[in-house]
Structure to design on (1056 residues):
């Protein structure tokens, strides 16, 4: 059975791991021998499917634990941390992956319809950007990171572009990239390397919520040198690479994983 | 007397105009013939100096009004808007300049000291980034923008770098640039062009609050091709250029105004 | 008659000024009161139209001289320089604008057709990038620049993107931007500020030579927030702004002038 | 013995592999089981050391062949290609790594000393940028690439910065990045993924040729979050990751491998 030597006995925390990029990442890391902790917010309708996937992961002889809670809630976060410290122990986490997608998709300007409120911006920035800092600092305080740990956040080309109805998420992605750089700098004394993966257009549940996502998908396929969308597995593979020992000197980077979309 | 033909009878709103880049901008635009509305939050100790400067501006035969309020307060904002609509009238504003500098300067990680809280991030993001949208949307709703208006926000190299203790402000600057791009796209139907000026290190009150600002200044002088810091007047001059009719096709840009710091 | 005070008695050198962005720039600067020197390579068929345009420029009470030569030829370059020194005198040039578009448009890879040769790359890099340095250094040696002079080169989004058949020009634009930054740094002791304008898709003769330019134009209109192409006048206006005294602190920048294309 | 399954029986072409990043890359890939072909230009004085390193590589049970020729010479290139086709066979190369460092280090402007000539620029651009295309197109014509092959070129922060005496190399690095993007786009039908690694300041022979390299090293250590220079091994590790099957969707990217230098 193929396993990655670097990974054995290590843990990965996946924030937002019930579907899409987060779940694909959990699956890849489990397959390579990493133990998995998933924090997710899943409706009852998808829980059975999620549980099946967890069982598949465990078939790789790894531990998988999960918490179906609101990752934004500070009390819940503290509870997860303390349970993890008890059951997993300190210095166990090789990686923390941020895949939280909870933003308000509305226009900034629409004379006839609903637009983003100040509060929509604040909530989106908190959920999709500041929460990375909240979890990383809580993990650090609880000594959960192993030496040479990896923090990985998912961003998109939207962080430096403008798309209609994507204004709050775009601002959050830009802030998320900035916070990742600050982590890359300030947590270096703990040995943490922090990077963003800029995923191409991926046909996930989160994408389908964006108005006009069908057109986005068509355009992405058209401009991609390989003529296809990004798959969750593509992104999971890149997380895998960034968690390898050989990635020790990659820090503060934004790595496009899109088959080349971003060069068109 | 030298005046810019494009400007006569037009108004500029300066958010954060009591000192630094904002005040220098007000002075330059007044000198070129634009009427000025300043929203500022000034302590009593600097009010006399501010009033003197206002009188100097008026000597250029322009109107100058000011509001000493908290630009973040929604009720105060609405009050300013309604007073401006009454006294100045609709479609009068050629430009809205965002120079709000109110951020928390603390490290992300410090085993022995105070670090940024979630709330510090939220307040900084609201004050230095989301407030741009709040004011632009309020102006648009009140029909205050003239056709071919300009929205200009001040950013810094810190938006895509990492400096210790600057994490919350860096995230806010990244978000501010993103919001400026969204405005550039979504307010195009109103004829607005929105751009950021990326100012070099400028010896303002805001800079002096950053721990290590003396070192930043020395390094900036050292790396600058012209061997000097950026002056508030340099930035004000760039605002002036972006408000000219000839800048009509500059939209969504981040213009470095730093004598070349950013290329070193 | 409207004239820009900064400009009176100053000269602009326009390299590649027989049509497109270069000619529009010459016209704008002439209209604002600057004397114009154009180096161009014009076929006989367009010379009459060019001569008419020169006469129009002169109607603004400015001097206009032109040289119909190959700007790449070192002997011709020296000849132009020495004639200009004689007729115009030293320290007279406020600006040097590089608008040389002479590149090979072929694919890198085509199993069945002609592809770029090493020599195609070399010639394109020389004509569209290195020539900027050749002219700037020759001007500097001959003391032709006035204090606080401006060097401006035209680039495109293609410098950091990949378009089929545009490979050699893309490399040249990337090199041109780099050379502009080196000029911004190394010629600072002479007071020169060097910047690039990143023009949006403009319907010029050069564009029409690019295979698929019709599709490029359609896509540009579609993604532009204002729904139109960039006009040569838009770019000329930006050159005008960068030549103003107020642009003294803009150095080493790449200024997009595209109505916002680059943010989509 | 640890080997990477993806790699067994595959070949890597290293252009410029006698020392520095190229040699470290050859060593890492050999250690992981890839056969190695090195094109280098080595003086007699270093040949003995080079031969010893080759023997060490072979101890990993891989084939290593080398050509001590001028990689810029088209006839020599054709000779290498035809020998490789004969001895290795078609479709054998998983990767082609471009590590050619042969540039002219002179200022653009120096009233009293030697400066870059047009020819210096041309030679540097040819050696450090266009040569990538020459080799990739020759490899493609000879069917040497395996499916899902990787082209990797080494760039530096200097591609988008300006450093004194580095003007020609900076332009070449910018052109190299552009050519890599064009390869990423136009060679997609052959399954090739092309990327650049932006290495931090590495204490190689090439670096020591840059005037002021001691200061560059000091500053790099100072600004690096981990307080050390980039090692050739760090860069070799990143090449290894980009050659893994999991990197299949990384295409056209510029990956910083510098421990975080670029974020300061």
């Amino acid at each position: 059975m193929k396993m990655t030597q670097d990974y054995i006995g290590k843990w990965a925390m996946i924030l937002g791991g019930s579907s899409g990029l987060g779940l694909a990442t959990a699956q890849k890391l489990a397959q390579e021998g990493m133990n998995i902790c998933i924090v997710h917010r899943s409706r009852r309708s998808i829980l059975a499917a999620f549980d099946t996937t967890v069982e598949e992961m465990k078939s790789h002889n790894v531990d998988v634990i999960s918490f179906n809670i609101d990752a934004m809630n500070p009390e819940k976060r503290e509870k997860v941390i303390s349970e993890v410290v008890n059951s997993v122990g300190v210095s166990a986490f090789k990686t923390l992956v941020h895949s939280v997608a909870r933003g308000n998709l509305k226009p900034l300007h629409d004379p006839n319809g609903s637009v983003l409120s100040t509060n929509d911006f604040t909530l989106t920035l908190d959920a999709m950007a500041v929460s990375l800092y909240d979890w990383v600092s809580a993990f650090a305080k609880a000594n959960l990171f192993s030496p040479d740990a990896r923090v990985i956040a998912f961003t998109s080309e939207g962080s430096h572009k403008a798309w209609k109805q994507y204004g709050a998420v775009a601002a959050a992605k830009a802030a998320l990239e900035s916070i990742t750089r600050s982590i890359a700098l300030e947590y270096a004394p703990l040995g943490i390397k922090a990077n963003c993966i800029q995923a191409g257009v991926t046909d996930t549940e989160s994408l389908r919520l964006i108005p006009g996502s069908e057109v986005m998908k068509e355009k992405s396929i058209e401009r991609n040198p390989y003529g296809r969308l990004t798959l969750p597995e593509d992104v999971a593979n890149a997380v895998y690479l960034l968690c390898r020992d050989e990635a020790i000197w990659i820090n503060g980077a934004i790595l496009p994983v899109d088959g080349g979309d971003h060069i068109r």
